[in-house]
Amino acid sequence: MKRNTSLSISVLAAVLALTPACERLSRSPEVAAATLDAPDELPSLQHTVFGDRVLLFLEHPALVRGEVARFAVHFSVLATGEPVRVGRATLRLGSQEFSLEAPTREGIFMIEGAPSSAGAFAARVTLAAGDVAEDVELGELVVHADEAAARAAVSDEEDDGTVAFLLEQQWKLALTLARVERRDLAQNLVVPASVRLPESASVDLHAPIAGTLHAAEGRALPRVGDLVRAGDVLAEIEPPIDSATIAQLHALRLELDMQLVEAVHEVEHSKLRRTFAQRELDRLRALRPDGLSTLPELDAAEREVEFTIHEEELALGRKETVERMLTERARFDTRTGSPVIRVPVRATIDGAVTRAPHAVGASVDAQTELVRVVDSSRVWIEGRVSEFDLHKLTEKLGASATFLGLPGVRLELDGAPWIAPRVAEESRSVQVRFSAQNAQGALLEGMLAELSLRTGRVVGALALPAEAIVMDQGMPTAYVMKTGESFERRVLRLGLRDGDFVEVLDGLAEGERVAVRGAYIVRLASMSPATMEHHHH
Mean pLDDT score of the chain, rounded to an integer? Predict the structure, then answer.
């Protein structure tokens, strides 16, 4: 992994600045009284337990019945690497409880208590601190009958070569850990790529005829950035009209007005005829019970009613036709009396206006570009693959894309890629294309990208975050937490990398916790003998 030189210098300075601070912390009276191992004191014990939200590191002397023991309870928030700054801690040892209402110092609760009985007792530490409240099981703690039994049972541990790194140091760096777990990883072929718009994603709207440009009724001319929908009238073109055409339009308007008068007359006449016919039919029906009308008379009256109804429907249809023609005819300027003809220009796709160079009143010719509309809701991610890597591509595994202009964005691309049927002679590469949704418009045409084409998959690979890997003398290395305040250096043999995770072929075991943020500082601490001298005993 590459490291910036200035970063390494600043990191080293941080470690050097931490060393004297850690000396003061480790030698402070309250911690030293509980954790330093003087010749007459009982040997100390350490416990490291990972909860769901916190890391518990507990230091205490060997427990003796009736003797007051001081428990140094360290709490670190796993998600942030920070110390627990508020809350109440309770140590339960069998049926006894020892508690402290607030941390003695950030992250550390100095709890005192005297076990009342000898034996092995289930122990648990409860932290009540808001979002990080948790019960942490310690297993069994042994309480000895006397000091001799305690000294005989606890043996001194020799230095195992681990890197001492106090929690006080870890908290200053907000050091975080990751659990080595199994996950499915994909093998990727990474190629340069860019964002492109499909050919059908943009349209140039031209003037259908020559004339004067006008805004659509009730709207302004579209401007760059306006959103439009297919079918919207974006502008209107008014063609020039000669005197002969004007005369014809006036004559047509007069003729339509006359036809409308005639149609209205026919409708009213048919309504009257239908009314009279219906009255005659009603009269004959009333006379029929008394024998004063005949069946032929009733049949003739009913036929007359049906005929007048049909006649009225025809008259109404003609009237509606004439009215529609009047509505669709050329408008006439109320001031000049001249006809006004406008040809609409409609959007053919949904999208945003990216070009609108003309203003109202501009003279345009046929085929003059009026508006450019671009639909960027879908884009193409196009990359180039060497012809020698084409055999690695599969249709089912998909791909992902990252973008130089959008840090942290990783776009998953599903489906089979389109592969161009031609190899570029200059680069010996083949164009590969994926389609992607771009509803928010974050992907811009021409944006640089990296296309990760999945060429294989490893199921259940042992993996850790790439950030946890530190290059040490050219070897990939990780630092495994052995206790809350010590790490072990592991040289790794790595496999494939999938995004932020790397396959570990050798060097780590499932479930181990490795330093992630701050891992490089742990490496620098391993190179400083001073830090080896000040860990808690």
Answer: 84
**In the block, residue with structure tokens 């007459």:** 40
Cβ pair 518, 175 in contact under 8 A? yes
Domain of residue 155: give its range. 34-161
Q: How far apart are CA 496 and CA 187, in angstroms?
A: 6
> b or e along 56-84 (b: 16 or more beta carbons within 10 Å of the residue's beta carbon)?
bbbbbbbbbbebebbbbbbbbbbeebbbb
- pLDDT digit string, tens, across residues 300-356: 888 988 998 988 889 888 888 877 777 766 565 556 556 667 788 899 999 999 999
Q: Are residues 80 and 185 in the same domain?
A: no
The set of residues, in sequence order, having a beta carbon less than 8 Å from that of 387 and lying 6+ positions away, is: 423, 428, 429, 430
Give the DSSP letter string of 24-78: HHHHSHHHHHHH---TTSPPEEEEEEE-SSEEEEEEEEPEETT--EEEEEEEEET
Q: Write down the pLDDT at residue 52.
A: 93
pLDDT band with cut points at 50, 70 and 90 for residue 37: very low
The pLDDT tens digits of the residues spanning 427-450 come to: 899 999 999 998 888 999 999 999
Residue with the two structure tokens 């009540």: 128
Instruction: Find how far residue 275's CA is from the centre of its chain.
Output: 72
- Predicted confidence (pLDDT) per residue in 161-215, tens digit: 789 999 999 999 999 999 999 999 888 888 999 999 998 888 999 988 888 888 8
What does the pLDDT look like over 251-304, one tens digit per residue? 777 777 788 888 888 888 888 988 988 988 888 888 888 888 888 888 888 898
Residue 251 lies in a domain: yes
DSSP string of 523-534, one letter each residue: HHHHT-HHHHT-
3-state secondary structure 131-147: HHCEEEEEEEEEEECCH
Q: In 10 A of CB 446, how many CB atoms?
A: 8
Contact 295/285 with Cβ under 8 angstroms?
no
C-alpha separations of 360 from 216, 222, 352 in Å: 10, 11, 20
- Same domain assignment for residues 334 and 358: no
pLDDT the model gives residue 504: 96
User: What are the two backbone dihedrals, phi and then psi, of residue 270, each rounded to the nearest 5 degrees?
Assistant: -65, -35
Task: Say which CATH number the domain at 223 has.
Answer: 2.40.50.100
Asked if residue 9 belongs to a domain, the reply is: no
Q: Quick check: 514 and 491 in contact, CB under 8 A? A: no
- If one counts the domains in the chain, the total is 4
Are the C-beta atoms of residues 462 and 510 closer than 8 Å to each other? Answer: yes
Asked if residue 252 is part of any domain, the answer here is: yes
